[in-house]
Amino acid sequence: MNFLYFCSLYIKIYRFINMKQFIIISILVLAFIVDSNAQTVQNVNALNFKELIAKGDYILVDVRTPDEFSRGHIQGSTAINVADPGFPSKVNLLQKDKTILIYCLTGSRSSYAANYLIQNGFKKVYNLQNGLMDWSQQGFALEQSSKTFASASTTYTEQSFNQLLKDNKLVLVDFHAVWCAPCKAMNPVIDKVSTNFKGKAQVVKIDVEANKTITTAWQVQSVPGFVIFKEGKKVWSHNGTISYDDLVLAITKFI
User: Which of 3, 24, 226, 252 is 20 to 30 A from 62 via CA?
Assistant: First the structure.
């Protein structure tokens, strides 16, 4: 039912109701329109979930425990345990304009998490309705990984980070998280930039959870996130993954 339909309906019923009734009906209709346009979680089966993955341009989120994740997960998944007290802060670092594909073992935990995402501004959220139970029954592959999510990144104080910016004319900072799959996908790009711009730009990797003072000070709102500093001043930033060529173009502008 669209806007023109409601207009024609108003004209027909206006003759048979008083102004008070008309106002009440208008409020109810408006509430219906707002509710019908509200973002909702899309529950899909394993076949449709796999098709969404094949389309690309998404963030795949596994909300199970680290032990469950290590025993088998869908390739390319970001691990954020919904039972972790830090779950809200972690998921809110993800890009809200990206398609989110979310799953757990049976679909119950991911359903809760998916609704949380919708309530917090994420636009497109797809939940694997019957979880990995359905995925495995379809014969789709899972990959295993280490249980370790420890960060090897340097921990900075505000003073040491400012000193880093002072000591280097041009600095590219890679803000990331160890549980973030898109961040891991960017590692080869960042390593290549670090090698090719040695002596021209300092490349620094900062784990947002191990460096909350720095991420708060520079208002880092998503991972991966990239910031270029020149002579201590922020001159460029980008949220989300970026190609090597585009990152090189950004750095070259400030050399």
Answer: 226
- Within 10 angstroms of residue 115's Cβ, the number of other Cβ atoms is 14
List, for residues 132-143, the tens digit of each pLDDT value.
999 999 999 999
How far apart CA 163 and CA 73 sit, in angstroms, is: 41
For 158-252, give the CATH class.
alpha beta
Q: Which two tokens stand for residue 195?
A: 């090698």
Per mean pLDDT, which range of 1-5, 17-21, 39-43 is the poorest?
A: 1-5
Residue 94 corresponds to which tokens in the numbers above? 């993800």
Which residues lie closer than 8 Å to 76 by C-beta, 6 or more apart? 53, 60, 181, 185
CA separation for the pair 108, 128 (Å, rounded) = 9
Asked whether the CA dihedral 127, 130, 136, 137 is positive or negative, the reply is negative
| Residues forming the active site | 180, 183
β 124-128/42-44 pair status:
parallel
Residues 129 and 132: their CA atoms lie apart, in Å, by 9
- CA 33 → CA 3, 17, 24, 56, 90, distances in Å? 9, 21, 14, 31, 32
Domain edges within the chain = 3-37, 42-137, 158-252
Question: What is the helix (H) or strand (E) element at residue 13, kind and residue range?
Answer: helix 3-14
Question: What CA–CA distance (Å, rounded) separates 131 from 136?
Answer: 9
Name which of 85, 89, 120, 118 is nearest 102 in CA terms.
Answer: 118
Pairing of strands 99-103, 124-128: parallel
The class of domain 42-137 in CATH terms is alpha beta
